[in-house]
Amino acid sequence: ALLCSIIPTASFLPLALESRRCSGSCRVSCRESVLLQAAAKKKKSRSSSSGGGGFGGAAMEPCPCGSGESYSRCCGKLHKDVNAYKSASASQVVRARYSAYAKKQADFLMATTHPLQKDFDTDLKRWKTKIKENMYDNFELSKCVIVEDDEQADTASVKFVAELKLRETGEVTGFMETSQFERAKTHGGWLYLNGTMEAAPDDLLVQNLETGKE
Fold it and tell me: In a designed cystine with 100, which of 104, 105, 134, 182 is the match (CB 3.0 to 4.6 A)?
């Protein structure tokens, strides 16, 4: 069990992730740590069971975020390496979360969600099942365009356009969202707190935004 004594406090509240009692601030820290440890453990398990190589088509597979880089050099690094995630910018985390839906990386989505976000669930198994039920399976995800970003010391705001292509018809749709992030106090990575959605601009505007923004 993860000990919560790293943040001393006089008053404690129950924490569903473990059998111990923690303060509100400790509860947030413990949740972050548990999720990151789970993601790292799963990554280690995948690495030990994979055959190695890395010269096949998977290594050169385009990243779903549309950066032009291969998945392994772009969002795949954040999905598989906790340290890469910790040092990533808020915009990179947005792209990686978008790609996580394309790659069915529920663990990454959970590990990068703020404990105070409305969909956060201390029952990790139930939460993971819920995420897997809404992974945009009927859509192809191949472009996430960063429109604006404002990164401060402990908070960040990122506006982006997420493109979705309906697999059955090829129809392109999408949405624009402004996401708010906070830095995790335990490890320094960006955690998704909330977002405000609005209608996406037309295809021409998306192309112009992509051309003018790295």
Answer: 105
> By the 8 A CB rule, do 191 and 183 touch?
yes
Taking the chain (214 residues) in runs of 10, the rounded mean pLDDT of each run is 24 23 42 54 52 54 95 96 96 98 96 95 94 92 94 97 91 92 95 93 54 47
If we measure between CA atoms, which residue out of 77, 4, 76 comes closest to residue 34?
Answer: 4
Place of tokens 């799963």: 42
How far apart CA 145 and CA 147 sit, in angstroms, is 6
Is the CB of residue 146 less than 8 Å from the CB of residue 94? yes
Contacts 24+ apart (CB under 8 A), 155-161: 155/180, 155/181, 155/182, 155/183, 156/89, 156/90, 156/180, 156/181, 156/182, 156/190, 157/90, 157/181, 158/90, 158/91, 158/94, 160/91, 160/94, 160/98, 161/200, 161/201, 161/206, 161/209
Phi, psi of 82 (to 5 degrees): -60, -40
Cα(17)–Cα(32) distance, rounded to whole angstroms?
11
Q: What is the pTM of this model?
A: 0.71
Contact 107, 128 (CB under 8 A): yes
Cα end-to-end span (Å), the chain: 43
122-178 confidence digits (pLDDT tens): 999 999 999 999 899 999 998 999 999 999 999 999 999 999 999 999 888 889 999
